[in-house]
From TrEMBL:
Pfam family name, one: Methylase_S
Protein source organism: Acetivibrio thermocellus (strain ATCC 27405 / DSM 1237 / JCM 9322 / NBRC 103400 / NCIMB 10682 / NRRL B-4536 / VPI 7372)
Family, per entry: Belongs to the type-I restriction system S methylase family.
Gene3D superfamilies in the cross-refs: DNA methylase specificity domains
Signal peptide region: none
Protein name: Type I restriction modification DNA specificity domain-containing protein
Gene Ontology MF: a single term: DNA binding
Superkingdom of the organism of origin: Bacteria
Amino acid sequence: MNCVFITPDKMDGKRISYDYVVQQYEIQRLLQRRPLITLIDICKEITSGIRVKKEYYTDKNGYKIIAPGDIRNEVIYINELKVVQPEVVREKDIINNGDILITASGKSGQVIYVNEVLEGCVVTSDIIKITLRDRDKGIRLYKFLKSSIGQMLLNSIKIGILNKIFVEDVENLLIPEDFDTYQEDCSDDSTVYAEAEKLYRSAENIFYRVFDYKGEKKNLKHFYVTEYLDSHRLDPEYYSNFYTELYRVIHKNFDDVKWEELGELVEIKKADKPEISKNQKVKYFLLADIDPNFSIIKETHEDFYGNLSNRMRYIVRRGEIVTAKGGSATGTKGHATALITEKFDGLVTTDALYNLVPRRINPYYLLFLFKQPIILNQVNMFTKGTLYKLIQRNDFEKIKIPRLESSLEEQIVDKMMNYLSVLQNKF
């Protein structure tokens, strides 16, 4: 057993914790004989953001706000951010290109570099914003804080069962004067995600130039039904869909948008059990292996086919699309859809997904649509069940697909192809 003797002068009476003491000892060992500086010495300011109240949120114009829950695996999904009223925002709450963000509670210690995509957003009080005097050093400090020694430093100032990090502790953090030398174990993911986000946004800009539906402003609480009664549907939420902006849009003719049903554009493969020997090793992925935010298959597995669930029925091919047909996230922003690229050709997957073979529509354009409210809200409209939401095949085929001029669809396809190419290099 390895033992370390720590003298009383190395102890902190306010933090009687084995992990804290050992971390401090290791940090001192790693940083010995290196000149140190206090983080605040190289900063213009270190602050936390807005203490948000429910009434601050708005559906109108305002500032997009970042909370710790919006950061997943150190990625911010900007399209999902809520908006707060401009009147409650102070100048110090606004983040700018080159700032560094640190989550201060929950999964604290996550580090985000603010690029031009995030610039102009604001942060909550559970995120600490670091603004350097020399913004050109921002990316180097970001890489240092993400490195093993940087994470050890942040772990050492977490307090309590909530792992809270306080602004004053970040200000007093001792870091090496030459902190930019600690970059070897940290890759810069922020530029990858920023590039992908730009491409995706540009695809949306093309689409919404001619299409004016981004979701419902509010849900109806009271309505009177006479025309749409269905003895198989007794749930009020289903009938509310007939009085929405969505229903009006998909039943309206536009000069530059034509509607076609999904069943006319794709073939939905039957979930027949494939002829694979139970002793054959196969590669496969599950619904949970699809990242719903990026629409990327993030993980695959390998096992003997006989060991897999009886639901593993599809053999997917390049150019096909898989999309969730059931689960609590079906028809929401968390709805999982992915395009099968060459890397995943021939893999086996579950019948918890629909396996689509595009016939009269480009798969990249269809993938783009399955991330938009016009499709997701239709999926949600057709789902049945309360404990487990499910969209049945005959309803799924009736989803209305907006067709644009071929030149516009081709532009979106080009953006989405580049978008996936950037992300696949990362994943």
